[in-house]
Design brief:
The complex is a heterodimer of chains A (325) and B (291). Chain A has 325 residues and is mainly alpha-helical. Helices cover 73% and strands 0% of the residues of chain A. Mean pLDDT of chain A is 84; it is low at 310-325. In chain B, strand 1 (134-137) and strand 2 form a beta hairpin. The chains are: A mainly alpha (325), B mainly alpha (291).
């Protein structure tokens, strides 16, 4: 495995994609620009989840709760307070990370499935509150027509805003992924017992990983509001969590950029299959089953396997299908 | 006040019986196959929709109602068996999350199939004369159908207990839950034990759907509501433990009805809060997990 935080061979495809995205609004219609923006927001959400699921090996089953907390915080700052918009930008990721700290603090004491289940119940608690607290959150209607600052309210300016925030986030995430902390988290994923034995504070690392991931989920929530101009309780619902989880598996959860691909495939399918037939989830389900049978390491894992051989993919080292108690 | 509390609790208990029947099926699959079956809610939904259709096919009288109630779980079990033998059984050697992913794909497919077959309209089933109307209990009225549910729940619990403890196949399934290699080693075809356990679990899901159909409007999306509740119930009860599923359902149903009484707007928060308290207090559930 290559060391060092920066390596042109792995970085150039990202730079190429970034450059292509930079010129996209000039060439394509508003609709495609909008879809690309949605894909980018979803990609950030999926990548933040993958930090804990793929790299940390934790069953983060209710990631959308933090995404929703970020989105709702931003929306509430813009609609219910007189504070300037940038306060919302800053506050929302921290609110999400704080929620992540509290929920994570309970969850990291449990393993695997119990971790996931406790998180679902805690996340559902947040969903239920947002769903019912009509006077604050608008209940099941949500909040619509949020006054986005003028500078990023048009489709192309919001597109560029999202692109640059996403780019910055990816660089930071990549640095975390390659940092000693990131490596430790991956080691905990592969063999928690051994990490414990050599003196790594397993629970502390996991909790910190959750806090970082939920921080990025909060940023994704802000970006969602920038694109859509509205929030609704479905953002916090467990179905979305599962969908994002699937994106990670679909793209390749042992890779760094896999979730982006997973997000692009899922959003793309929903949009384009959705225009032909209302049964797009049926088609997504069939594609998922085909992937499970033929590409078990996800699309990105498959590509890396073909281009670079086994070493780049990380490998399914501890994948025996057991639940560790 | 006191009488309305009593009736509220009884309604909560009868809802807990539905939750128990559905979550015991989920728990059984989880215990034996060790797979959290996300598609379980979809099978519950299919149970409700097929009860509606069978009820219509048989003419809509009292006999049609009972026939539909009896047959629709078998329809669901058939669907489950086909999915298991056709696709799922080839994945047992694979990584755990892949099995979860498969059941999610199954949920997406079944959800859309229901939409294709039954459309997105709301459907309802009227319960027969015998179970329609209400009875005066504790000074207020209590629906007869809920009383029926209060009887069916314990019957199913006892039947399930007899089945898993007194019959050979039930014992084999329990043994496979604890140590599948050993069951394999003594010459029992574990793959078929899994097929059987999956089908039985889904049968219970379908039975829950058929039973709940007269009390709610049958529609798309009912799978999403039930599955999360069933998962939480199974978790707080102890994974794979049938009695745990019963206790979990009672906690869920009763806290919800207390919530409705105390603070109707936030009633749905109460059961989730109860789950959090139980899991923080006993992280691996109230009763011993089977594995």
């Amino acid at each position: 495995m290559q060391r060092g935080p920066f390596n042109w061979k792995t970085v150039w495809p990202y730079v190429a994609v970034f450059a292509a995205l930079l010129f996209m609004p000039l060439a394509l219609s508003r609709f495609y620009v909008y879809i690309t923006a949605v894909i980018m927001v979803t990609a950030l959400l999926a990548m933040s989840l993958n930090m804990v699921v793929g790299h940390g090996g934790m069953y983060q089953f209710h990631h959308a709760a933090f995404y929703g907390v970020g989105a709702y915080t931003f929306a509430l700052v813009l609609t219910r307070t007189q504070l300037p918009a940038w306060v919302g930008f800053v506050l929302a990721p921290f609110a999400a990370a704080f929620t992540g700290l509290i929920i994570g603090w309970f969850c990291v004491r449990l393993n695997k499935l119990y971790f996931g289940m406790l998180q679902i119940s805690l996340g559902s608690l947040i969903w239920a509150i947002a769903f019912r607290w009509y006077s604050l959150t608008g209940g099941d209607d949500g909040i619509h027509g949020i006054p986005i600052p003028d500078a990023i309210s048009t489709i192309s300016s919001s597109y560029y805003f999202i692109l640059f925030v996403l780019g910055a986030c990816i660089i930071v995430m990549y640095m975390i992924y390659r940092s000693p902390f990131g490596k430790t988290l991956q080691a905990i994923r592969d063999n928690p017992e051994r990490c414990e034995t050599v003196g790594i504070h397993v629970r502390g690392h996991q909790l910190f990983g959750i806090v970082i991931a939920t921080f990025f989920a909060g940023i994704a929530g802000v970006l969602f509001v920038v694109v859509e101009g509205s929030v609704f309780p479905d953002l916090l619902f467990w179905v979305l969590s599962l969908e994002v989880f699937i994106m990670c598996l679909l793209g390749g959860w042992f890779t760094f950029a896999g979730p982006v691909l997973g997000a692009a495939i899922t959003v793309g399918l929903r949009t384009f299959v959705g225009t032909y037939t209302e049964y797009w989830t049926l088609i997504l389900g069939v594609i998922l089953i085909l992937l499970i049978f033929f590409l078990p390491e996800g699309v990105m894992g498959f590509i890396i396997d073909k281009t670079r051989g086994r070493e780049g993919a990380g490998g399914l080292t501890d994948a025996k299908g057991r639940i560790h108690q | 006040m006191l009488s309305s509390l009593g009736v509220h609790l009884l309604v909560g208990l009868s809802r807990a019986m539905i939750l128990f029947i559905v979550s015991s099926g989920l728990s059984f699959v989880l215990g034996v196959l060790r797979v959290p079956n996300v598609a379980h809610g979809s099978l519950y939904m299919i149970g409700a929709f097929s009860a509606f259709t069978l009820n219509q096919v048989f003419g809509g009288g009292a006999a049609a109602f009972w026939l539909a109630l009896l047959l629709s779980p078998f329809v669901v079990a058939g669907v489950a068996l086909v999915a298991e033998r056709g696709l799922f059984c080839h994945l047992y050697q694979r990584e755990h999350l892949m099995l979860l992913l498969f059941t999610f794909a199954l949920m997406l497919i079944l959800g859309d199939l229901v939409k294709i077959i039954w459309g997105s309209d709301y459907r309802s089933i009227t319960s027969p004369e015998l179970l329609a109307g209400s009875l005066p209990i504790l000074g207020s009225s209590f629906p007869k159908y809920n009383l029926f549910l209060l009887i069916v729940g314990p019957v199913v619990a006892v039947a399930l207990w007899l089945f898993t403890n007194k019959t050979k196949i039930g014992k084999v399934a329990r043994a496979a839950a604890v140590d599948r290699e050993m069951v394999d080693a003594i010459g029992i075809n574990v793959s078929w034990v899994f097929a059987f356990a999956f089908t039985l679990g889904c049968f219970l899901g379908g039975l829950g759907g058929a039973l709940v159909a007269p009390t709610i409007s049958v529609s798309l999306g009912m799978d999403h509501d039930i599955i999360i509740e069933a998962f939480l119930i199974v978790t707080i009860g102890g994974l794979g433990n049938m009695w745990g599923a019963l206790i979990g359902s009672l906690i869920f149903g009763v806290t919800h009805s207390i919530g409705v009484l105390l603070w109707p707007q936030f009633a749905i928060v109460f059961p989730y809060l109860a789950v959090v308290i139980v899991l923080v207090w006993r992280p691996t559930g109230m009763l011993k997990s089977v594995w």
